[in-house]
Amino acid sequence: EVQLVESGGGLVQPGGSLRLSCSASGFTFSSYAMHWVRQAPGKGLEYVSAISSNGGSTYYADSVKGRFTISRDNSKNTLYLQMSSLRAEDTAVYYCVKAGSSSGYYFDYWGQGTLVTVSS
Amino acid sequence: SYVLTQPPSVSVAPGKTARITCGGNNIGSKSVHWYQQKPGQAPVLVIYYDSDRPSGIPERFSGSNSGNTATLTISRVEAGDEADYYCQVWDSSSDVVFGGGTKLTVL
Fold it and tell me: What is the pLDDT at residue A107?
């Protein structure tokens, strides 16, 4: 059974930093690209970042470029999102998401999400 | 940037058919994926590559895509289908794009 378990969310002041982790199990983690998708309270889904299966390629939405860093440790089956210079508009539930296939840009498994609140 | 447009809400009586649209410029040339999100839960993939269903998703869920509109069709709607539904595509200029979401209400 595929499981994605996020952790690391919480309350942080504007300008602060936070690192999210996503522990994966039930599939060959090193074979799949992984993604982060967020959802602000009461709002829709927003694509945040992606990393290729070997970590050699990354993507960031314009809204987080230069502030967020995605990484992965295939030996630990873990995905990370380092967030810095946080803003109020970064407040959201952050989902760790598995790519549906090696070439498809769809998401077949989602974690339960971790809430990040940016507020003073 | 590529934009996907969904109606904010759709209402349907139990046992009837619900159709949720997703509009985009020449969306028929792209692969469309659909997600269901119930309150307080993570999204669940219900349709991928326009019309494929993941294992465990009822046959009542189907999808189509042509021209400027993709459609998620839910037949014989049940109370448990009440949720938000999001369409999603990959675009070469915008990368992953989600529609704004449609709230399905079962009357």
Answer: 96
